Each structure stands twice: as structure tokens, then as C-alpha cells.
Amino acid sequence: MSLRINFLLIAVAAFLFFSCGSGERSSTTGWKYNDQEWGGFERVDYEGQETGPNLVLIEGGTFSMGWTQENITYEWDNIPRRVTVSSFYMDETEVRNIDYKEYLFWLDNTFGESYPEVLNTAKPDTLVWREELAYNEPYVETYFRHPSYDNYPVVGVNWVQANEFCKWRTDRVNEMILVERGIINLNPEQKDAENFNTEAYLLGQYEPSVRKNLEDQRTGGERDVRFEDGILLPSYRLPTEAEWEYAALALKGNQVNDDERISDRRIYAWDNNTMRYQVRDKYQGAMMANFKRSAGDYMGISGALNDNAPIPAPVRSFMPNDFGLFNMSGNVSEWTADLYRPLTSSTLRDVENHDLNPYRGGIFKEMVLDEDGRPVEKDSLGRIRYKEIPDTANIDRTNYRTSHVYNYLDGDETSNVEYDYGETTLINDESRVIKGGSYADRAYWLSPGTRRYMQEDQSSRTVGFRCAMTRTGSPAGNDFKGGNQFGKQAEKRTQRRYK
After folding, report:
1. Among the listed residues 328, 335, 371, the one whose alpha carbon sits nearest the alpha carbon of residue 454
2. How far apart are CA 469 and CA 157, in angstroms?
């Protein structure tokens, strides 16, 4: 009898121990989250990644990457292979002239006095409009600067400049998030190294004017925003070639009854094999993209213009594809993040190891640390310093051995391939993939499967860019929390034990 009473007392004590107070508890230890009396370990009530300005969620999946139609150029540089792309975000439109002018304005305001070369280096090359046997001189003066072209895609921007724009945009968007959440005060008069940089802020190397910081669950005071809070967005960046091609094809439009039956066959960023809208409504017969229909025909005849644009058109011209993206075929070709190599993963001996998020062009880096293991002081532009990881540090790893993997299995010592730039090839470690075709291209180049390249320090009047961003968490969006119905029920049962 006494044994039963002791057992009941223990059970009651345990119940009171785990049910006193409110708040979610650890399913591992039973300790409370977000409670100063229990140590203050924080678990964020995270609602999901916020969608940044102008971005669209591209739900990932598998597709046949490469040129799946007739290869009329016989280059064999995009042999089809089955890959999977993780979910990510993509700009709804190409970056506009007005967007890039906003960037230059900020650079001038922040670095103009001390580092004028930063602004000069970022300016687009407007001379790309010049041509020996054409009168394009008006575009040299007007296309970028005149307000008539504010909503047209910026051109004359090289790959390096496009990446710098992405870095700037990351910091401005994250700064905007903190301002709109009432955490920091707006400060448009930042100068030199004392400007908002996302990494510098998270590492405590930039101190903004604080309005009201977050509550510190451990001390009961306030603290800065941390990466673990999920408030700040991942970096804007150029899309990989695989991401760009997947987003352009938008094969979800071919899906049948929301199951896995889908056709991988699309020539352009829309259904059908013609360049005109096929549905029988008021738009029937309308051009689907801005391209060069034939020699000397950029927009049709007077009174019946087919695409209304002899040069790039406004970024929201023509119909968006099934992901809601404009001009993924035509208007301007676009930079991608990838280094160009004619061989693709389907031709490599370890193809099975490179069929998730394929990408060529990585350099593995790490922060520069001082003797105490802390990041050294940010540079003169306010950015955290990085260095390439030495190969000697990777000798014991199994997933990678070298930090500079541009030529992995295609140009390195083990591949028996050598790119002798300027002698036998125009391919080198600065050749970057461009995709999508432009207003000056024939329809063939508008297929997402085609690919070309340019040197990363070159620019063109036919090449622009758009940004992408990594998706964190559930690939299906914030409304879907991940896992499945069984996992969700198990989590509910765990929490009910402590109530």
C-alpha cells in the first residue's frame, strides 16, 4: 500500500514539475524554452522565410536539364541529364535601370568622397550601344540615364558588377527589415566603413542607431538581432545555371492533376512550339517574347508591330511563365553564377554525386580570424574579410579536398583536359554562362536549354541579369511546415505531455 502511495506522490510531483507555468518545452529534456528561470534557452516562434522585394518562390523539383530538342549548332555542350533543384526565390523581372541607378546613388552618397573609384567601377558601360555600321548613338546617352527607360532592363553590366549589386541589395533589404520592425532607426547618411552590412551587424562590427532591440530571454534585458532569429534574409545572388533553366521552363504548367505526371518537353518558357499566344481569347496571336524574327526584323512593320520593341522592352512586357516570371525567353540574355565548361555532369564519371543543385564555379572560403579566433576588423568598405581555405586544411576530408573547384573533373590534372585560352579555346576561369536569348537573337536562343558564355569582366547591350535567393525551410512555402501528417501528430503529442 505504501509503495503505491509513494508511486502516486512521485507521479503527482512529476506532473506538477512539468505542468507548472506556461510555454513550450524541449521534447529531449523537458526544460522550458524562452524562460529565464530555466536558463533562457530560446526557441523562435518562426513563421517562415519572408519573401524579399520582387521575389517569387520557385518550388524545386526534378527535371531534365539540357538541350532536349535538336542541337542545330552541334556543340554538344549541354547534354541532357536528370537533376534536382532545391526550392529558391527568383526575381519576377530583370533588374531595371531605375534599380541600378538607385544602387549608384547609394554608392555615391556612401563612398563618393573617400572612395570615388567604387562608384566609377560600378557604372554600366553605356558604350556597348555603339556599332560600326549602325546609328545607335542616341542610346549611349539615353538608354540608362533618361526616365523613359527607367523600367527597362539594365544592360552594359558585367558579371562582377552584377554580383556586387546583389551584395548591396542584400544589405539594403535586411536594413529595411530591421527599420520596419522598429529595431533600428533609419539612417540614409552612412559613410565609408560605417554602413549597414548584414554580416558586420551580426558579428557586432557595425552598431546602428537602435530603437528597440529584442528581449533577451536569458538575462531579461535586450539584445541585438542574431542569425538564429530568422529575421534577416539570406543573400541575394545570381542564380545558378540549373536554377535559371528550371525557373525558365516552369514545368509545373505541364503537371497533370497535382501528381507526379509531368512532361519535361518544353522548347521555350511557355507551352507549344510557336512564338505566338495560342489560346482563343483577345490575346490570341500576340507575340510571347521580344526577339529577332528574321534578318533585319526586330519588331515587325509599321501599323502591325509584332513585339513593339527594337531594343529591350520594359521588364513586365509579355506574358509571365507558369512561375510568374517575366521575359525568361527573350528581351535580354541574363548572367548566371556558373563558370562555363562544355562538359556537363552527365559526361563525368561520378554523375550520381552531382545531380542535386549542380553548379560549377565554387571557391570555398572562411573568415579571416585573429589569434583569439575572432573575425578581424572589417575592411574599409564595411565588409567582413574572407580568405580561400588552403588545400592543406582539407586533406583529411572525404567530401572535398581542394578549395578552388573551378576545374574539378574538367580542366584539372585528373581530367586530361586543358583549356589553353587564346591559343586553342576562348574558355578560361573567367568564362560565365549566359542564358535566355535577347531581343537581337533568333528564336533558337530563346530556349532555356541553350547556353552561351562571356568573360566575367565583359558586358553587352543584349545581356542583363536578375537576382535569386536561397529558400530556407520547407520547399513548399511557409504554409507547409515540413515533414508529414504523422510527424506533426507526434510533435503535438509530445507537447501535450507537459500541459
Report:
1. 335
2. 20
Smallest CA-to-CA distance from 335 within 194, 239, 424 is with 239
Per-residue pLDDT reduced to its tens digit, 443-483 = 999 999 999 999 999 999 999 999 999 999 999 888 876 55
Amino acid at 3: L
275, β-bridge pairs: none
How many CA atoms does the CB half-sphere of 318 hold within 13 Å?
A: 32
Which residues of the chain, if any, have pLDDT below 50? 3, 7-21, 346, 349
CATH tag for 55-181+231-362+405-470 (out of 3.90.1580.10, 2.130.10.10, 2.40.37.10, 3.30.470.20): 3.90.1580.10
- What is d(CA 213, CA 201) in angstroms, rounded to the nearest whole number? 13
Give the global pTM: 0.90
Domain assignments of the chain as residue spans, ordered by start: 2-46, 55-181+231-362+405-470
Q: Decide: helix, strand or coil at residue 60.
A: coil
Longest dimension (CA), the chain: 106
C-alpha cell recorded at residue 103: 544602387
Query: Which stretches does DSSP call E strand in 288-347?
Result: 300-301, 304-305, 333-339
